[in-house]
Amino acid sequence: MLECRGVVQRYGRRTVLRVGALTVEAGARLALVGPNGAGKSTLLRLLAFLETPREGSILVDGHAVVTAAARRAARRRVTLVEQRPFLFRGSVLANVAWGLHARGVPAAAAARAAREALTGIEGGPLAERDARALSEGEVQRVAVARALALQPDVLLLDEPVSGADRAAQHALYAAIAEAQMRRPMAVCVASHQLEDAYRWADRILALHDGAPTPVTPDNLFRVQLAGGGGMQRVTIGAVTIDVVSDRTGSVTLAIPPEEIVLSTVPLESSARNVIAGRIVRVAEQGAAMRVTLEGGIELVALITRRSFEDLKLTVGGPVVASFKSVAVRVF
């Protein structure tokens, strides 16, 4: 459906995105994850043909989109909902129907489709309200309904639930899943909410400093290394950890969640890094459990459900995280 080939985007002299290859198939559920400034929004705007890459190309169905006419045609198939969407003056229903009117859909049919889209996100009661009087979360939901009403082949969402409560988040993702059941729409979501990304998406693309990385945004820390090679000690928040690296200066440390061993008491092991804390969140990730702990820094560990149950771990309960210095990645 959509492809990136050798895409590079620059703003002035600053390179903000490098994606060698990316394919978004029909019906896909792709989550883009990464810290602020990682390049998620830029990638979405390129995929929506709102920006043109400085290098490389974006393809639709195997054909590079290079001319103005091709971009206009592509925009009819791809819809982007940005993190802070704009709603026009007037009712919510009029806003949701606006894109259909712009495409020549008769008024009655547009209104009917708009109401169906609002109902799908449990936003039916909003239909007659003034669009400018909505909360941030309601604005996001209405913007998604407006996009769904257009029945795009590709739906791109930039932090679509950042202003929504938990119930509204579930309703939104359920509406998207239902829309995908009706037709093979690809959905690409940029999100900071990793638990939702892992639960909802069938594929995760992690970005860091504008490039894809095999390291997910869990446990990423920007630090200064003194250099000298071998074992180095760095302070992160209220804790000090040991890493093995010959790098010097500003670097990013990544502690893979699967490399962290959890216990209820300190273990006798070769792991040089031991952090005691308390569990603040627990979430399912497939057959495993994502355990977030706070112990001077916030860490996410990934353990089996069996280990979680055997250790009798609970939110608010004590836990000890251990990991080896060689497990810490430096880049």
General shape: globular
- The protein's oligomeric status is single chain
**What does the main sheet amount to?**
6 strands, mixed
| Fraction of residues in β-strands | 35-45%
Strand order of the largest sheet: 6-7-8-3-9-10
What is the H level of CATH, i.e. the homologous superfamily of the largest domain?
P-loop containing nucleotide triphosphate hydrolases
* CATH class group of the largest domain: Alpha Beta
Count of individual beta strands: 20
What is the mean pLDDT?
91
Tell me what the structure shows:
With 331 residues, the protein is α+β, with helices and mostly antiparallel strands. The chain has two domains: 2-212, 3-Layer(aba) Sandwich (Rossmann fold), CATH 3.40.50.300; 220-330, RNA polymerase II/Efflux pump adaptor protein, barrel-sandwich hybrid domain (OB fold (Dihydrolipoamide Acetyltransferase, E2P), Beta Barrel), CATH 2.40.50.100. The protein has helices at residues 40-47, 68-75, 92-102, 107-120, 136-149, 166-182, 194-200, 305-311, and strands spanning 2-11, 14-24, 29-33, 55-60, 63-64, 78-81, 154-158, 186-190, 203-208, 211-212, 220-225, 231-236, 239-244, 249-254, 261-263, 273-285, 288-294, 298-304, 318-323, 329-330. Helix 5 runs parallel beside helix 6. The longest helix has 17 residues, at 166-182. The mean pLDDT is 91.
Summarize the structure.
With 331 residues, this protein is α+β, with helices and mostly antiparallel strands. It contains 8 helices and 20 strands.
